[in-house]
Design brief:
2 copies of one chain form a homodimer.
Chain A: H1 13-18, H2 39-45, H3 50-54, H4 57-71, E1 76-77, H5 84-88, E2 93-96, E3 100-103, H6 125-138, E4 143-148, H7 150-159, H8 167-175, H9 177-201, E5 205-209, H10 218-234, E6 243-246, H11 254-259, E7 264-266, H12 273-280, E8 285-290, H13 299-313, E9 319-323, H14 333-348
Parallel strand pairs in A: 1-4, 4-5, 5-6, 6-7, 7-8, 8-9
Antiparallel strand pairs in A: 2-3
Chain lengths: 349, 349
């Protein structure tokens, strides 16, 4: 069955900006726009675990649609979690409130790799179904598919949970590079296939999210991570979906992340869009980069910061407005709506 | 009473490297070398709270000396905590195990500023005493004085404890810049005076540590933080003590941190020493920058990484070998001794 996404989403401002083509106004969406900042989300999630929620197509659809309806953003982001694909292939993992993903038996030997088989669309029928439901509902608004990148997945699997210093992960990559590459090769397949399922079902853009990659030096990134991110991104090559690649604290890695095969590089708030463009070089779009903490500042301050990001973004083709990191849970959602309107207003002037 | 530090510590490799002068070999010390990685430290601290320990000169002296004896490093770092000076002036604060500093009543209004009076040497007689004891014991090894920088102190005081996103801190700086600057002006006095007490008692170098400043954009740093760091560093100008300034994740801020008045800029492992020197410009020494996670990798891998940092450091005058962040508590202390020997060996070749 072919994608049910209206063909015209291909010429949406989001897709055009991702391709560095002219836009009618700067497209805007927010990382983690679907989530705890919305009371309607908290009500819907009540009593359902995160991973359970991610396997229920109607729930995923409703959660993904909530911020689009409320804020009028230019894209929906598929509601999922970074560890959904590894859970889908059978790895024992749960998301513990206040902690994050916890892996019952971490991956630390070659034998452990058997617990992470390749992912096929048969592992995630609920994703295909949710994407189809979504694109039917979304009309002209494009859907962004989502997956965690191999390094971040590997860190969770090797450490057994969230980690501040990624000590075991780095010890493995340096101490047993062959095992490291075998693990990341597997995770790149899982991650890439997860993106591909979404793209084939109708997602018009994909985002590969590498939460923790900013913990690496550039030398470690290019040697141990970039080839695997490239493999994951290559899984959707030829499907006509621009690829966004983002990580936090990645000022030193922007050019290498672009070179991994992304049309759009997400920029955190520590680096200006101008500096980011200079580092990345021509031919790529940028996404970002308002400091999410500014959403707690008075409106006049926030307003000026939003206008600055929009104006800076417009100095060259290819800018998708976003935060420089995910929406914080305590934020007043009305502020996100105001920012959306302001971005549109300023960029059509 | 004048400083009892032997005058010859002024021509130690540490001080010479800090001034970009020729050295007999690359000086090495480790941030957090005095601390939980050492069994003799854990034994000594048993039953004594962190803040209590910091007020006992004999204990501070012994803890500070432990890593110097064990590893043969080229500097002692004064054992203290970032919040010691604010506790010394009377702010109610405690260090909670597994959490960090917790401020009973956070600072959020102009009236709250009264709870952070100016610091004089009379507030910290135990610091003066500990430094004097130390320099008498240390002989030719120079002592590095230590203080937390105004921004990091402000973040603890405004948030009420450690924070991931510094939301209240950023909301305050943007929402009430006058109060923010008043608070940081006070904290710069406290921080600078704390460094000055140590320098006057015999510390030969000082390090101003801005743990969290990497959470700021460059624009926010230059407007809201740099003037106050400069004020703190200026408090020891004229005392003939080179000043090291370090923060984590500060690749974007290195030049501005140097411009705040530091002779030496600490570099974390995400940026190469070569790139750091290029960003900072000539006339400054650099300190760093081995990834602390590599201390858990096999020796051959670690060895190569150490040699690389030493060789890169030697390409220009002015390099102090260190980690790109503090020693992790689980590290095998023998590894630190091996690294110290290796740095010395490689740099005298």
């Amino acid at each position: 069955m072919p994608s049910t996404a209206p063909a015209r989403t291909r010429s949406s401002d989001l897709v055009r900006a991702a391709r560095c083509e002219p836009v009618s106004r700067t497209p805007v969406w927010f990382m983690r726009q679907a989530g705890r900042s919305l009371p309607e989300y908290r009500a819907l999630r009540e009593g359902t675990s995160m991973l359970e929620a991610c396997t229920r197509p109607e729930l995923v659809t409703e959660i993904t649609l909530q911020p689009v309806r409320r804020h009028g953003v230019d894209a929906a982001i598929f509601f999922s979690d970074i560890v959904v694909p590894v859970a889908a292939v059978g790895l024992e993992i749960e998301i513990v409130a206040g902690v994050g993903p916890v892996v019952a038996r971490p991956i630390r030997s070659r034998a452990d790799l058997e617990r992470v088989p390749e992912l096929t669309s048969g592992h995630v029928p609920y994703v295909t179904e949710a994407v189809r439901l979504l694109v039917a509902e979304l009309g002209d608004t494009p859907l962004i598919g989502f997956a965690g990148a191999p390094f971040t997945l590997a860190s969770y699997l090797v450490e057994g949970g969230p980690s501040k210093n990624h000590v075991r992960t780095k010890a493995l990559m340096h101490g047993d590079p062959a095992l490291w590459h075998a693990l990341c090769d597997r995770l790149a397949q899982v991650s890439g296939a997860f993106l591909r399922v979404q793209a084939q079902a109708g997602a018009r853009v994909v985002q590969l999210f590498d939460s923790w990659v900013g913990a690496l030096s550039r030398a470690d990134y290019t040697r141990f991570v970039q080839p695997h991110s490239a493999q994951a991104l290559a899984a959707v090559a030829g499907l006509d979906v621009p690829r966004i690649h983002f990580g936090v604290g990645t000022g030193e890695l922007l050019a290498d992340m672009a070179a991994a095969g992304a049309e759009v590089v997400g920029v955190d708030y520590r680096v200006s869009l101008t500096d980011a463009r200079e580092r990345i070089g021509p031919g790529h779009a940028v996404q970002g980069n308002l400091d999410p903490a500014l959403l707690f500042a008075p409106w006049e301050v926030l307003r000026a910061a939003v206008v600055e990001v929009v104006e800076e973004g417009r100095r060259a083709p290819g800018h998708i407005f976003n935060l420089g990191h995910g929406v914080l849970p305590d934020v007043d959602p009305d502020v996100l709506t105001r920012i959306t309107d302001l971005v549109h207003e300023v960029s059509t002037r």
